[in-house]
Amino acid sequence: MSPQDTLPSPSPSTSPATAPPKGSGRTRPTRLGRLRALGGSPLQRICLLLLVTFLLVALLAPWLAPQDPTFGHLGDSLLRPGAGHWLGTDQGGHDTLSALIVGTRTSLAGPLAVVLSSTVLGIAVGLFAAWRGGWVDTAVGRVLDVLFAFPALLLAILAVALFGKGMTAPVLAMALAYMPYTARLVRGLAVREKARPYVAAYQVQGHSALFVTVRRMLPNIAPTLLAQSTVNFGYALLDLAALSFLGLGVQPPTPDWGAMINQGQAAVLQGQPLSAVVPAVAVVLVVVAFNVVGENLGDRLAGRDAR
Length: 307
Description:
There is one protein chain. By secondary structure, the protein is an all-alpha fold. The chain has twelve helices and no strands. Helix 4 (96-132) runs antiparallel to helix 5 (134-148) and helix 9 runs antiparallel to helix 12 (274-306). The longest helix is centred in the middle third of the chain and has 37 residues, at 96-132. The radius of gyration is 26 Å and the shape is elongated.
C-alpha cells in the first residue's frame, strides 16, 4: 500500500476550487540551496574555492607579487620569514612568496595547454572512430593501444632529448600521451549516442555527419568529458612539475613550482625548507583539488544516468 492510499477520501461536498493545489507542499529551492547543490559536499566546496583562488592568483600574479621573483641578491640568500620576505628567500636571494605567486602562471598554463590539446585531438579521433565504425574503428583502437604503452612523462623526456629543454616540446608530447584516454572515452560515449533514435532522425533529414556528431552528439557527452578533463589536469600538472624538477621543463629564471622544489633542495639541508616545501604543498593541493572535483563530477553523472 502506498502512502497515498492511507489518506482519507475527500468529502463529496468539497469543491475542486477549495482543494489544495497539487505539489503545494514542495518548496522551491533558494539560490543558496542551488549553490550548495552545485558545490556538493563540504570537501567539494573547499576544493572549488581552492581552485578559484589559485586561478585568481595566476591571473593577478604581476600585481600580487611583492617583489620581482627573477631578481635576487646573494646577500639576502636563505633569509628566514620576516617583514620583507614573508616566506623567506632561496639560495639565490629570490623572494619565495613572489616566486610562488608568479610561478602559478607557468605551473597552471602548461597543464591547461596539455588538457586542451589532448581533449581536442581526443574528441576528433573518438567521434571519427565511433561514427565510421567497422575497420576504421578497429584500426583507431589499435593505434590507441600502442599510445597507451608510452607513459606521458617518458614521452616528454624523449621530446626534450630531441628538441631541447623548455615547455613547448614536453607539452606537445604529453598532449599526445593524454589523447588516447580522451579518445577512448569519447568513442565509447559516442557509440552509445549513435544508437539513439535522434541520430537516425537527423540522418533521415539529410544532415551531414559533421553536423550530427559535433552539433548534436558532442553536447550530450560534454559533461562526462569535462569530468575526465578535470582529472587529467591534475595528472598533467604533476607530470610537468616532475619534469621541471628534473631540470628539463621550465628553465630559470622563470619561476615554476617544480623548478623551485629542485632549487630548494640544498636550502632544506641548511635549515631553510620553505623554498622547497611551499611549492611542493602548492602542487599537492592543486592536484588533490582537481582530482576531488573531477571524481565528484563523475560520480554525479553516473548517478544521473542510473536514475
